[in-house]
Amino acid sequence: MSAPSEQVLSKLEIDQEKKVRRKGGPMLVIVLVAVVLAAGVFAFQSTKKNDRNPVISNGEKPLGAATATSPSTPPPPPKSGDTVLTVSGYIIPRERIEISPKFQGTVTWIGVRKGDQVKKGDIIVRLEDREFAARVLEAQGRVALAEANLVNAETNLKRQIELEKRDVESQRALDDARRARDAAVAELTMAKGQLALAQTYLDWCTIRAPIDGTILEKLVDPNELVVPQSFGGSRGPSTAFVSLADLNDLQVEIDLNEADTPKVHRQQKCRVSPEAYPDKHYEGLVAEIAPEANRQKGTLQVKVQVTNPDSFLTPELTAKVDFLAE
């Protein structure tokens, strides 16, 4: 029994060489794991470094890189005639006039239409004037009566002077004659004033153009009632006959941003180009700068006077204004 048992045990026993090789296996695994970990740490560090210093493919230097920079030089000042600012605005007449009645009346005739050109003094509207013509006749009669009373009073005064010299009449009668003459003079003055007032109202019934210009809008028609002031509502009588303006005296109205205010000053030369005709250019000057800004818009109103306007500049259309350097 002992011999077979020893043979069995000898087969189960592990050789010494094999034991040595198995001892080296775990160490190899540990070394491989350490190498992999080291490679991962190195790759992570390289990625962070690249993130801090990115490489620009087009050759630009990365942000934050220390480079030798030369001191910045200010831009050269603009030359005379260069554009320092361009702003858009609206073409407007320098003066727009609305002709209104001075009293309530009825239009009997209107002789203009929108777009008509008129000269100063041209009759454009007539109002009903029969009442005022009658008042003129009445006033003329009062003047005539006052003149007759004055002639009589002066004649009586001369008579009293002669009688007083002959001691026929008393001094009191002479004083009464002088008082009557003075009263007649005052009555004549009053009558002439009433005649002038009646004539003024009659003249107001004929409406004339106050300036040379173009009719921008016709606001009434014949047989329409007009009043000098509005009483509210959209269906009330008209308060004006026509509106007109001199289209040879035009400006461009601009709302200038407050940040651009230092670039603009009075009498500054400008170049005006209407948006409808961009190939047209007109000379201009800064004629007006508002003394107060618009708080809500943050703008300052500027008006540029067009020095050589023509028919291509239409009021209320848009125009571009180039402000030029001196």
What features would you describe in this structure?
It is a single chain. The protein is α+β, with helices and mostly antiparallel strands and 326 residues long. Among the domains are: 84-95 and 246-324, Efflux pump adaptor protein, beta barrel domain (Elongation Factor Tu (Ef-tu), domain 3); 105-125 and 209-245, OB fold (Dihydrolipoamide Acetyltransferase, E2P) (Beta Barrel); 129-204, Helix Hairpins. It is 36% helix and 25% strand. It contains four helices and 14 strands. The chain has helices at residues 2-12, 16-52, 130-165, 171-204; strands spanning 83-93, 96-99, 105-110, 117-118, 123-127, 206-208, 213-218, 225-226, 242-245, 250-257, 269-274, 282-289, 299-306, 318-324. The strands form three sheets. The chain has a six-stranded antiparallel β-barrel with strand order 1-10-13-12-11-14. A four-stranded antiparallel β-sheet has the order 2-9-7-4, with no helix packed on it. A hairpin with a 7-residue loop joins strand 11 (269-274) and strand 12 (282-289). Helix 3 (130-165) packs antiparallel against helix 4 (171-204). It is elongated. The protein starts with a helix and ends with a strand. The relative contact order is 0.16. The model is unreliable at 54-69 (pLDDT under 50).
